[in-house]
Amino acid sequence: xxxxxxxxxxxxxxxxxxxxxxxxxxxxxxxxxxxxxxxxxxxxxxxxxxxxxxxxxxxxxxxxxxxxxxxxxxxxxxxxxxxxxxxxxxxxxxxxxxxxxxxxxxxxxxxxxxxxxxxxxxxxxxxxxxxxxxxxxxxxxxxxxxxxxxxxxxxxxxxxxxxxxxxxxxxxxxxxxxxxxxxxxxxxxxxxxxxxxxxxxxxxxxxxxxxxxxxxxxxxxxxxxxxxxxxxxxxxxxxxxxxxxxxxxxxxxxxxxxxxxxxxxxxxxxxxxxxxxxxxxxxxxxxxxxxxxxxxxxxxxxxxxxxxxxxxxxxxxxxxxxxxxxxxxxxxxxxxxxxxxxxxxxxxxxxxxxxxx
Amino acid sequence: xxxxxxxxxxxxxxxxxxxxxxxxxxxxxxxxxxxxxxxxxxxxxxxxxxxxxxxxxxxxxxxxxxxxxxxxxxxxxxxxxxxxxxxxxxxxxxxxxxxxxxxxxxxxxxxxxxxxxxxxxxxxxxxxxxxxxxxxxxxxxxxxxxxxxxxxxxxxxxxxxxxxxxxxxxxxxxxxxxxxxxxxxxxxxxxxxxxxxxxxxxxxxxxxxxxxxxxxxxxxxxxxxxxxxxxxxxxxxxxxxxxxxxxxxxxxxxxxxxxxxxxxxxxxxxxxxxxxxxxxxxxxxxxxxxxxxxxxxxxxxxxxxxxxxxxxxxxxxx
Lengths: 357, 318
What we know:
The structure holds 2 protein chains of 2 kinds.
Chain A: E1 15-20, E2 29-33, E3 36-42, E4 48-52, E5 66-68, E6 71-73, E7 80-81, E8 87-89, E9 104-110, E10 113-117, E11 143-152, H1 156-164, H2 169-172, H3 179-184, E12 187-191, E13 196-205, H4 208-214, E14 223-234, E15 237-241, E16 244-247, E17 261-271, E18 274-283, H5 290-316, H6 318-324, H7 334-349
Antiparallel strand pairs in A: 1-10, 2-3, 3-4, 4-9, 5-6, 6-7, 7-8, 9-10, 11-18, 12-13, 13-14, 14-15, 14-16, 15-17, 17-18
Helix pairs in contact in A: 1-7
Chain B: E1 2-11, E2 16-23, E3 36-43, E4 46-51, E5 62-67, H1 75-82, E6 88-91, E7 95-96, E8 106-112, H2 116-129, E9 132-138, H3 148-153, E10 160-163, H4 168-178, E11 186-191, H5 194-206, E12 214-216, E13 233-237, E14 242-246, H6 252-258, E15 277-281, E16 284-285, H7 293-298, E17 301-302, E18 308-309, E19 313-316
Parallel strand pairs in B: 8-9, 8-11, 9-10, 11-12, 13-19
Antiparallel strand pairs in B: 1-2, 1-6, 2-5, 3-4, 3-6, 3-7, 13-14, 15-17, 15-19, 16-18
């Protein structure tokens, strides 16, 4: 399926973001991920559990049931499943017959995020979770803020493409300034140990946006050097940054208040054609400043909402569109094309079935 | 394009001179990967490619080595005889058509004569990275062995094997012995005269080496120059049975198009890979951003929208 030569575009062996930690409670919740309904809840000691979400007896979603101790009880005929998936009680008979067992998935809680592994068990390795210290998540001196969630009626690759080509900023997000600035800045790409990085370096004067983010007291004279950075950690996680200021005229060091704001994107395929989009941010300046938290949350929700509208509109007629015209790719698509190649290589390793020619 | 000054010229052997190049503006030299070469603009219309030699101060100066070749048609003779310390010349930015796989378990290096230049750079890099390797270096005589002193006294001297006064049988046996233990993660790199590289490849194949683990550097003898530095070359379209010329100021895609053969295109600048075409003979000059270094080094496909040829002609599956 577009844009791959494979029938589907979901890489199985990744840690996908299942939820913000605050979403998972003693009340069961359900989220379909990688085409499978998954029920999630917390045990008595707070450990989160992820289990295949439909009862094997009459297929009622387990989310309709309730949590009892560390187990979950189906809301139809009371079948009870332990947190390891074993069926431990069938109320209508004396013993548990058959080898009934509900699939469970490895769910790891790290700071504000729970990650799920739905791929091959022998490849499951928590070291493959995106490296938090790369983007200030759950790190000393950094704040986590503006968590928001969107459901996308579009395949996850459309969001990856969107994030790898930031020249869409002045058009999709037309309320943001800087149309000319973005259009002409050449891009640089770098291979890092854990990410494929796209950089744009430029110069900018003090402006209204800086004032909102950094506060009026951080104002400088002249032009600062800044870079816009995107890191692709995998189809499940991308970080983008707002301008990272690397030099200010007349100063030997960049003042602390002109810090770094990372905009982070968790991308989890719901089905082949729909996606969970988790957005959040981290920053290492104006820590605990609620006014900035609120401004950033509102700005993020607006911007991500605009991306979702665009992606939904693309998905609606995408299968038709690709039968009519060859996709036109341009200079700005270099990172997106390289990232597609990386994902295609991951699909090849997993022996994903090919699209029929 | 960089304007450089010849800072030093050393006669390494009676036939080989090395040159140290610094930027005229005093700026740092651009960083390069091991295996890279530069186009050296020796004189009007005289452009040659030379491999860059690794050394610890390569941000300060580049080093190349040039053989005064009887077969040469001008380039190396001009560098030897007419280019002196203090002279100003122009060179291109470094380009890498001979990338080294540093994730190899072991690397076997084979140099024939002046082919030592990129091979020695690879040895230095592998030694720095702690990757296991052997360097087998074939020359006509000890006097013709460039960098003999350096290589026999360096920190990895025990991994360097010289063949300068051996009999044919002796060196043949030694090559076979060196190639006898192939694993999937052992890579071979060779540079030297075409006949020498063919001999090394054939010996490796006879020892069950896989094709994808064999790498060689192909130098072009006599390129024809144009103003942009691009050269004309020939395309042989094997399925259409056509032979077409690509002019110096024309892209391969334009020439193919003009001949009435259709190639799928999209970005026309080496980004998207839509025009990727199979190459069955000849060596492309890859200029795209689509293929990885590994894919480029296989030389079995190229993007006609922006890439050209190092060999005089390319045979395409079109």
